[in-house]
Write a structure and sequence with these properties.
Blueprint (H helix, E strand, L loop, with lengths): L11 H11 L4 E8 L2 E6 H17 L7 E5 L4 H12 L3 E5 L5 H11 L3 E4 L5 H4 L9 E3 L11 H7 L14 E6 L9 E5 H12 L10 E4 L6 H14 L2 E4 L6 H8 L3 E4 L1 H14 L2 H8 L2 H15 L6 E4 L6 H10 L3 E5 L9 E2 L12 E2 L4 E4 L5 E5 L6 E2 L3 H7 L6 E9 L5 E6 L4 E2 L5 E2 L1 H8 L5 E7 L7 E6 L1 H7 L2 H20 L10 E4 L18 H8 L3 H6 L4 E4 L1
Parallel strand pairs: 1-10, 3-4, 3-5, 5-6, 9-10, 11-12, 12-13, 24-25, 25-26
Antiparallel strand pairs: 1-2, 7-8, 8-18, 13-14, 14-15, 16-17, 17-19, 19-20, 21-22, 23-24
Helix pairs in contact: 2-3, 7-8
Length: 562
């Protein structure tokens, strides 16, 4: 996009200097450092670190346009690192902190990164083989290795970069490699202006994200949602960002932050719901919520236990939100906004309006976003000033990503209702045909399937079978029950009844032949999900497809797979 469409004072570095000048002593970052200890940073302290690291990068020969990579879980230093790269004239290349060594090497090599920041990581021993020999590295605080020059030492001995160096809106700011649900990661290029426009457009819908807001950063900062909402959100508003320590401390992290704005992926919203139901049976909870005075007390107690009693804006995205899940949270008094976007448009495309829930849709386009449905195949296409510059070093893929008149192919199928709300009906390429010649769109069926209290994730599949089937992964509590022969029978009966209920709402050609139940967790490490918890359909097919015929041939509603 042309930088003329955004005001220069909305660009990232200009916002940094604004807060440094106007609110130097405001605490804006709260970072757990282990054992209950916390470290807080004001804007003054944040910019001091940022300026010193930027000066060090320049001293190491980082030139304008050089790519510098970040491999770390979310921390306060992750943000400072990104800002320092920009201040030094570089282009940041964030890597997911769960990648395998081969993918790390592929991205570092493809991006031609000149330096790598290594930060907080859980599986460094399996990752480090992916770092090319001779690539300079810097160890950030909380990194699992001290074999590289250390951040704190560099800050202690390096003077801050002076002045207010800025970058033009049209300049490349970052290359974000997609999480690869459909193959090799592609490097999505964004400028300073595409992000500035996108966060400005997004915040017009969300007045709750302001200077007084609190957010918890825990979804990967290498993902576009966290990058836009948290990193560019703090630059735009000056809000307070808290960081999560680990999965084990996540409840305590939420309780500490008491976020006023909270974004999550559907899988985590489902886990929250299942956690509530584990302590209070669904029927009892609904009965209590229906009692006027007691219902208010129960709502407050449940939301307080989740750490969301102060939440003014709650949202879900990155994958479809089951409508029944949205209704459940609405009954709790938490009006979940559903957002829709992709890395290629800074995550800013559509959203439902706070207080105007439209379950089953992702709402209306943001101001400045245009959308249309391709009559040929039902694909959603979008256009906005937040569209990517293209895929790095992939001109042919870039051409394929856009229509001849400049609209972005989303790859998603959808329809519009009478009010213009967008309903996503699946992926163009996820449609599959049964042996009866009928097409099946899996996403709407999966929305229904995942609502069983024992199911954490699922995938509807079965190309060329007579009927589709559902592969479901149990949550940890249900997986334990499945290991007990006595409890397994009741669980199987419940799943069978759920299958009957789901099938009753489907057209005959969509009805599932059986549920295949897996107790092994689908994780990033074993390749079944992306770092943002999307199920990788190609991996499901690769591992399970050879057994489809035998499962269907068993003629049972529920098949157990060890």
């Amino acid at each position: 996009m042309s930088a003329n469409l955004v005001s220069p004072d909305t660009l990232a570095l200009q916002r940094l200097y604004h807060w440094e000048r106007t609110a130097p002593d405001k605490v804006v970052l709260t970072q757990p450092t282990g054992g209950g200890a916390l470290r807080e940073f004001t804007w003054r302290q944040t910019l001091d670190h940022t300026r010193r690291i930027a000066a060090y990068l320049k001293s190491q020969g980082i030139a304008p346009g050089d790519r510098v990579a970040i491999l770390s879980k979310n921390t306060a230093w992750w943000l400072m690192c990104d800002w320092a790269i920009w201040m030094a004239g570089g282009v940041s290349v964030p890597l997911y902190p769960t990648l395998a060594a081969d993918t790390i090497r592929q991205i570092l090599t493809h991006s031609e990164s000149k330096l790598l920041f290594v930060g907080k990581l859980d599986g460094w021993d399996g990752m480090k083989a992916g770092v090319p020999a001779g690539l300079p590295c810097i160890g950030m605080p909380l990194a699992p290795t001290n074999s590289y020059p250390q951040w704190d030492d560099i800050v202690a001995r390096t003077g801050p970069l002076p002045g207010e160096p800025v970058r033009d809106g049209d300049e490349l700011s970052t290359i974000m490699y997609t999480s690869g649900t459909t193959g090799a990661p592609k490097g999505v290029m964004h400028s300073f202006a595409t992000f500035a426009w996108s966060v400005t457009a997004g915040l017009k819908r969300v007045p709750a994200i302001n200077a007084n807001a609190r957010m918890l950063s825990y979804l990967p900062l290498s993902h576009v949602a966290e990058r836009t909402l948290v990193e560019h959100g703090i630059l735009a508003t000056g809000m307070h960002v808290f960081f999560a320590e680990s999965l084990d401390t996540f409840t305590a992290d939420l309780q500490r932050a008491r976020p006023t704005a909270f974004f999550s992926v559907p899988r985590l919203w489902v886990k929250f719901q299942q956690g509530v139901h584990a302590k209070m049976p669904p029927a009892k909870l609904q009965r209590l919520l229906g009692i006027p005075i007691l219902g208010r007390i129960v709502r407050k107690k449940v939301l307080s236990a989740l750490g969301l009693d102060q939440c003014e804006f709650a949202a879900g995205g990155a994958a479809p939100m089951p409508p029944e899940l949205l209704r459940w949270y609405n009954r709790l008094g938490l009006d979940l906004v559903e957002v829709y976007g992709m890395t290629e448009n800074c995550g800013v495309s559509h959203a439902t309006l706070p207080g105007k829930s439209r379950p089953g849709t992702v709402g209306l386009p943001y101001e400045g976003v245009q959308s249309r449905i391709d009559p040929a195949n039902g694909e959603i296409q979008v256009k906005s000033p937040g569209l990517m510059l293209g895929y790095y070093k992939e001109p042919e893929l870039t051409r394929e990503a856009f229509t001849a008149d400049g609209w972005l192919h989303t790859g998603d199928k959808g329809t519009l209702d009478a009010e213009g709300n967008l309903r996503i009906t699946g992926r163009v390429k996820d449609l599959f045909k049964t042996s009866k010649g009928k097409y099946v769109a899996p996403a709407p069926i999966e929305d229904r399937l995942v609502m069983h209290e024992a199911i954490e994730a699922c995938c509807v599949t079965g190309a060329n079978l007579g009927q589709p089937l559902g592969v479901v992964m149990l949550n940890p509590q249900a997986a334990v029950r499945a290991g007990d022969n006595g409890a397994r029978g009741a669980l199987e009966q419940s799943l069978s009844a759920h299958l009957t209920q789901v099938n009753a709402a489907l057209d005959p050609h969509e009805q599932l032949d059986c549920l295949v139940v897996v107790t092994e967790a689908w994780t990033v490490d074993n390749g079944f999900i992306t770092p943002t918890f999307k199920v990788k359909r190609n991996r499901i097919e690769e591992v399970y497809a050879p057994r489809y015929e035998s499962w269907v041939g068993a003629r049972k509603p529920v098949i157990w797979v060890s």
